[in-house]
Design brief:
With 315 residues, the chain is an alpha+beta fold. Helix content is 34%, strand content 27%. The chain is built from 8 helices and 17 strands. The protein has helices at 3-14, 20-37, 73-78, 155-161, 226-247, 251-277, 284-291, 304-310, and strands spanning 44-51, 60-62, 68-71, 87-89, 94-101, 104-107, 115-118, 121-123, 127-128, 133-143, 148-149, 151-152, 168-169, 173-181, 187-194, 196-197, 201-209. Strands 7-2-3-6-5-4-8 form a 7-stranded antiparallel sheet. A 4-stranded antiparallel sheet has the order 1-17-10-11, covered by helices on one side. Strands 9-15-14-12 form a 4-stranded mixed sheet, with no helix packed on it. α1 crosses α2 (20-37) and α2 (20-37) crosses α5. The protein starts with a helix and ends in a 5-residue tail after the last helix.
């Protein structure tokens, strides 16, 4: 059914004086509210996160208290706009690269150490996800090259166990950082994947998208029963009638509609719970591997026997 059809059903159910466009708005808002109550399957998808390898070509010179970093010819050849927003380390601390021009880097803060012609590493410490990602799966990050699930930990825990962030190898964990800007300037959720990558890695992750704002002519998603949205929109229609009766001084009519929308709210809650129970999904890691066309085994490869088995040989 379309939003228009559900809205007409709402208007006809109680013969309200509200107009059709207003009823359609109620239907759309009830859809938004329904999707905020649980993580429905139709909003779940797999995102791709391509994490670039670290940059460590050439040498760099840092001056204590200065924000300017200069590199030798080899370093300058790889210092371009892609390093902006990443972090650089020479000895101990990571510094945010704010600008890259004319073979030089400009840091967001002054350098607290001193190194001349030093080796360095540049990594993307924080990476942004899909802007439409509303919820993330705790178990839904998978390093695709190894088909290895990454463990989710809190950022505070990561700061405790690895405050210096010295390891650059293959990722094991991920932590949500907050929000940042994508290369297109769109605000999106940001995560830190650690250890940092010494080679380019592809990570797939499960997220639930922000539900769309249904318009008048849009179809209601097939996995959502239209009667659930109707039951919810009826609450708004009854509130509309109660408010109109109160403004007109019709106290008894206002009281009647108040009782009706309260009873309808109870009915709506039952329908919401039924919709949630009817929405079942598979495990998030299995979901990623199935979407990627990889047979989802019952467990990870943890022994030589497992490796031989998945390659097609039989022990």
């Amino acid at each position: 059914m379309t939003v228009e059809e559900v809205a007409r059903s709402v208007l006809g159910a109680i013969n309200t004086s509200a107009n059709l466009l207003l009823a359609a708005r109620w239907v759309s808002e009830r859809y938004q509210k329904l999707c905020s109550r649980t993580r429905f399957r139709h909003l779940r998808t797999v995102g791709e996160l391509l994490i670039p390898a670290d940059i460590a070509d050439g040498t760099a010179t840092f001056t204590r208290g200065e924000r300017r970093v200069t590199g030798n010819a080899t370093a300058r050849s790889v210092w371009d706009t892609r390093v902006v927003g990443r972090h650089i380390r020479a000895a101990t601390t990571w510094y945010l690269v704010e600008e890259a021009t004319a073979g030089e880097l400009r840091l967001a803060t002054g350098f607290g150490e001193s190194d001349t012609a030093s080796a360095y590493r540049v990594v993307p410490r924080h990476v942004t996800l899909a802007p439409e990602a509303k919820w993330l799966s705790d178990t839904g990050f998978v390093l695709m090259r190894r088909r290895k699930p990454l463990r989710n930990i809190a950022l505070a825990e990561l700061d405790t166990v690895a405050p210096e962030r010295q390891r650059i190898t293959t990722p094991d964990v991920w932590a949500e950082v907050g929000y940042g800007l994508t290369p297109d300037g769109v605000r999106a959720r940001t995560v830190e994947v650690y250890p940092y990558c010494d080679d380019t890695e592809l990570v797939h992750y499960v997220y639930w998208a922000q539900p769309e704002d249904l318009q008048y002519r849009d179809s209601v998603p097939a996995v959502i029963d239209s009667y659930v949205l109707k039951e919810g929109a009826l609450i708004d229609a009854m509130r509309y009638e109660a408010a109109g009766a109160a403004r007109a001084g019709q106290i008894e009519a206002a009281a009647y509609w108040r009782n009706e929308y309260r009873a309808q709210a109870t009915s709506w809650e039952r329908e919401v719970l039924e919709a949630i129970r009817g929405d079942k999904g598979v495990d998030d890691v299995m979901f990623i591997l199935q979407r990627a066309g990889v047979p989802a085994s019952e467990h990870d490869i943890i022994s030589a026997r497992d490796e031989i088995f998945v390659r097609g040989a039989r022990p």
